[in-house]
């Protein structure tokens, strides 16, 4: 496998804004959130394992996973969360590896909000952090999701603290300006990754 860059950051930090820019440069982007949804699609073995483990209530009438019901259930049942993760995490990891292997661009990017927490950073050569001051995280995420800043703050509280994330990063962009400011920080990194990809 060639060079793999892991891109991470907290809620509303600008991961999608950054990874869309890399995709526009022709870089293949593997999105861990998309993979997590793919592996529980109807017909996938993980979905039948989840149904067997939890019961028929996890399915909606159309046979797809009732994500909201399951989310609520694991919120109040820590053991259920562990069981769910035992079913999903190995499959997510396998599919991520497979998608990374099939990438044809000079280097490939793995975007994951839980890159470090779920040890997906072990799959990458470098970690790029999209860092953002907390007040901007709050305002941008609540605007995007039409949620109160209190609701976003709750999510931020259970995510890895900003300083801890920074210690795991090889490269950091600070998304505290407009998108032009963000892109101007991404261009030199893209050049650096292209150069690095020739040495791997
Ligand atoms: P999540 O993990 O919650 O999905 P994310 O890290 O992918 O979030 P984005 O969706 O890229 O974050 O950004 C959050 C919101 O902030 C979006 O509505 C996006 O358009 C906006 N945004 C991102 N960067 C900037 C910026 N530099 N200036 C203004 N708005 C921005």
Explain the overall architecture:
- The protein has 200 residues and is α/β, with parallel strands linked by helices.
- It folds into two domains: 1-27 and 107-200, P-loop containing nucleotide triphosphate hydrolases (Rossmann fold), CATH 3.40.50.300; 33-104, P-loop containing nucleotide triphosphate hydrolases (Rossmann fold, 3-Layer(aba) Sandwich).
- Helix content is 55%, strand content 12%.
- It has nine helices and five strands, in the order βαβααααββαααβα.
- The chain has helices at residues 15-24, 32-38, 45-54, 67-76, 78-101, 134-145, 149-158, 162-168, 179-197; strands at residues 3-8, 28-31, 107-111, 126-131, 171-174.
- A five-stranded parallel beta sheet has the order 2-3-1-4-5, with helices on both faces.
- Helix 4 crosses helix 5 and helix 6 packs across helix 7.
- It is globular and about 50 Å long.
- 29% of the residues are buried.
- The mean pLDDT is 95.
- Adenosine-5'-triphosphate binds at residues 9, 11-17, 113, 140-141, 144, 175, 178-179, 182.
- The site of adenosine-5'-triphosphate has 16 residues, from helix 1, helix 6 and helix 9.
Strand order of the largest sheet: 2-3-1-4-5
Percent of residues in helices comes to: 40-55%
Structural class estimated from helices and strands: alpha/beta
What is the CATH superfamily label of the largest domain?
Answer: P-loop containing nucleotide triphosphate hydrolases
The biggest sheet, with number of strands, parallel, antiparallel or mixed sense and barrel status, is: 5 strands, parallel
- Please identify the top-level CATH class of the largest domain: Alpha Beta
* Number of spatially distinct domains: 2
Instruction: Output the CATH topology of the largest domain.
Output: Rossmann fold
């Amino acid at each position: 496998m060639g060079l793999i860059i892991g891109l991470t950051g907290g809620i509303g930090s600008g991961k999608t804004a950054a990874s869309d820019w890399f995709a526009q440069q022709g870089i293949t982007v593997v999105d861990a959130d998309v993979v997590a949804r793919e592996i529980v699609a109807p017909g996938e073995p993980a979905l039948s394992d989840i149904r067997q483990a939890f019961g028929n209530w996890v399915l909606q009438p159309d046979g797809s996973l009732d994500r909201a019901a399951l989310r609520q259930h694991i919120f109040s049942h820590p053991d259920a969360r562990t069981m769910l993760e035992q079913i999903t995490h190995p499959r997510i990891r396998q599919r991520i590896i497979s998608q990374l292997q099939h990438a044809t661009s000079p280097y490939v990017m793995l975007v994951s909000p839980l890159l470090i927490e779920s040890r997906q950073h072990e799959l990458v050569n470098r970690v790029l952090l999209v860092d953002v001051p907390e007040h901007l995280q709050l305002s941008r995420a609540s605007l995007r999701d039409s949620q109160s800043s209190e609701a976003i703050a709750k999510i931020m509280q259970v995510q890895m603290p900003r300083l801890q994330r920074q210690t795991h990063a090889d490269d950091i962009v600070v998304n505290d300006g407009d998108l032009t400011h963000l892109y101007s920080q991404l261009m030199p990194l893209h050049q650096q990754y292209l150069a690095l990809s020739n040495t791997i």
